[in-house]
Amino acid sequence: MKDQYGRTIDYIRISVTDRCNLRCVYCMPEEGVEQVAHEEILTYQEIVRIAGLCARMGISKVKLTGGEPLVRKGLYSLVRDLKRCEGIEQVTLTTNGVELKSQMEELAKAGLDAVNISLDTLDAGMYASVTRRDMLDQALEGLKEALRYPQVKVKINCVPMRNVNEGQWTTLAGLSRDLPVDVRFIEMMPIGLGKEFQGRSQDDILAALRKAYGQETLFYGKCGNGPSIYVKFPGFKGRIGFISAISHKFCGECNRIRLTSEGFLKPCLQYENGTDIKGPLRRGQSDEELAMLIEDAIYRKPRSHHFEQAEGEGFEQRQMSKIGG
Questions:
Q1: What angle do CA 186, 133, 238 make, to 5 degrees?
Q2: How many other CB atoms are there within 10 angstroms of residue 201's CB atom?
Q3: Does the annotation list 158 as a binding residue?
Q4: 85 known ligand binder
Q5: 176 labelled binding-site residue
Q6: Does residue 67 have a known ligand-binding role?
Q7: Mind listing the pLDDT tens digit for each residue in 71-128?
Q8: Helices within the chain (DSSP H only)
Q9: d(CA 142, CA 161)
Q10: Which of 79, 204, 206, 226 gets the highest tally of CB atoms within 10 A of its CB?
Q11: Is 282 annotated as a binding residue?
């Protein structure tokens, strides 16, 4: 499937819930958000049907997100059913890791290909401040459990923030030295509460890592499903990655679309426009009719984001947890 600018779209991020067991300062208010009624979010069967239609168009990679996807019961069954869809080659998961220890075995048996664990600091006090929950030990136990399954690729995601988790990236990167994990630094996205925080750039992080670990070498292989840059430091078991959508804009290589937990298909994170898939699906439209809606939404994917602008017509106003991380 190609959009109007000739980009091949082969990757979909699917949010399974807007709920979360943490309250990260850049993602969700301390009091939480008004939760969507359970009957308003897509069922697992509906997600599998939509993913199957996407697979017919060449979308072969699925990332399950939230909120926190592991707070939704039986997620392993969704992984299993997605892996059975013809054309879907990879099913991966992004999680905060808090519930991972108790669910990792079932997820691995279901065929999960990779797990990304969000971890902005290894300092317990700072973690509690950023997430508003004292759950670092549980997240680290989840990481340890994930590493027991070598067939599942493990990555760690960190959002570096000025004056919030300063200095933590060197310690976090050290996990990649000692463990077979990739540590990735993701620039702060100015969506929802993220607008209130100033991120640190790829160049800032690299300068700190060079001081601690020496000169990096660029890694040219494929490490993930989306546009990113990876480097390797001497003696490291894993790699260091950068997803720098703001300072190193990669819209020309963007290969993804997003499906919210309420069944809204978003071609671009920044813009509120998209296509409702849940409504037509529940009204009984055929696979062919639904496929036309998906194809049209993908074709109309915008050329690029404009996050450098503070405000603009049609910009997304919802919190990140409502969209899908």
A1: 35
A2: 18
A3: no
A4: no
A5: no
A6: yes
A7: 999 999 999 999 999 999 999 999 999 999 999 999 999 999 999 999 999 999 999 9
A8: 44-56, 75-83, 100-110, 124-131, 136-146, 168-178, 202-213, 278-282, 287-299, 320-323
A9: 24
A10: 79
A11: no
Instruction: Collapse the DSSP code of 230 into the 3-class scheme (helix H, G, I; strand E, B; otherwise coil) and give the result.
Output: strand
The structural domains of the chain, with segments of one domain joined by +, span: 11-323
Beta carbons of 151 and 92 less than 8 angstroms apart: no
- The H helix count followed by the E strand count for the chain is 10, 12
What are 32's two structure tokens?
Answer: 């939480």
Asked whether residue 7 is marked as a ligand-binding residue, the answer is no
Q: What are phi and psi of 282, to 5 degrees?
A: -75, -15
Please check if 223 is assigned to a binding site.
no
- HSE, side-chain direction, 13 A CA sphere, residue 113: 15
Does the global pTM surpass 0.85?
Answer: yes
CA pseudo-torsion sign 275, 277, 283, 287: positive
CATH 1.10.150.130 fits 11-323, yes or no: no
Tokens 């671009």 — which residue?
268
Q: Which residue has the tokens 């696979």?
A: 287
